[in-house]
Amino acid sequence: MKLQCLGIDQSFTSTGVVVVREGRTTPVFHDRIRTSKADGDSDERIAFIIDNIMGIVDEYEPNLTCVESTAYGMVGKGMVFQLGELSGAIKAALFRSGTSFVVANIGTWKKHTTGNGNAGKPLVQAAARALWPKCPTVTDISDAYLIARWGLDNLTGAV
After folding, report:
1. pLDDT digit string (tens) for 121-132?
2. What is the pTM of this model?
3. Strands (E), 10-158
């Protein structure tokens, strides 16, 4: 069976999730898990995001799941704690399910996939489209895609 990797670009409003498979540049699955304040408090939103991620894990059984590290300096003051909670909840759910996972350092996956550890959104999008020409322009998807590609390269020894 071919190796598979799930990439997660976590966010309280739009978490990008992409599953890539060895030998393919087009993902076998991609989506955004969207929530808003209207969906409930932060605990309800976290539970919704976790339920969706674990459904993807159950369906695709990735060999490795890569969760993007949290960029605490990039968010507003009120979101820092919520992102920390979300990140911890995702990792705890993966751990409890026995799913193999790693934290994908932002600078590391960007350097590996774009050649620039500080790549901005346009360069990340271009790198994703170079591999997957029909990559949606939604940055959550392109980030999750390249995070998954980085993870797959780790599994196959290309890193």
Report:
1. 999 999 999 999
2. 0.94
3. 14-21, 29-34, 64-68, 101-104
Beta strand pairing call for 14-21 and 29-34: antiparallel
Q: Please report the beta strands in 59-108, taking only residues with DSSP state E, as ranges in sequence order.
A: 64-68, 101-104
Domain ranges of the chain: 4-156
Alpha-carbon Rg for the chain, nearest whole angstrom, is: 15
- CA nearest neighbour of 27 among 159, 125, 149: 149
CATH number of 4-156: 3.30.420.10
- In this predicted model, what pLDDT tens digit does every residue of 84-142 receive, in sequence order? 899 999 999 999 999 999 999 999 999 999 999 999 999 999 999 999 999 999 999 99
The set of residues, in sequence order, having a beta carbon less than 8 Å from that of 59 and lying 6+ positions away, is: 29
Distance CA 14, CA 41 (A): 16
DSSP code for 74: G
